[in-house]
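Chapter summary example: a protein plus zinc ion.
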Amino acid sequence: MADACVFCDIIAGRIPTEFVYEDDDVVAFSDIRPIAPTHLLVVPREHHSTLADTVSTREGPELLGRLLKVAGELGAARAEKDGGYRVVVNNGAAAGQTVYHLHVHVLSGRHFAWPPG
Ligand code: 5GP
Ligand code: ZN
């Protein structure tokens, strides 16, 4: 757990948040400021600041696989009606990361342009 981490607060129950998915290692919940009709965040219970920090740890590859599996399952469940979904990890300030607790965005319900802004 990290000091002053909003996602650690959510995971610990200090900020009441409904989980759309949870297991021993991973939770998922709706983004508080959605940028698409479906906008979920898939988050490890354990605090890792960034993707870059996570890949270099021993458990990193397995954890990242689990996060992507949950993201893919949640995306697929919604893609049936939405027709597709996008999975995003912002790594670092220049890429738009604002919360420094690793998370995977799952977005669907509208068309997504490429390249992203
Ligand atoms: P990032 O910009 O770091 O990739 O994404 C962080 C996301 O966390 C943002 O989309 C932001 O809206 C979301 N977020 C920040 N604080 C909270 C919160 O307290 N609750 C929820 N559900 N989402 C949050
Ligand atoms: Zn945290």
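Key point: The radius of gyration is 14 Å.
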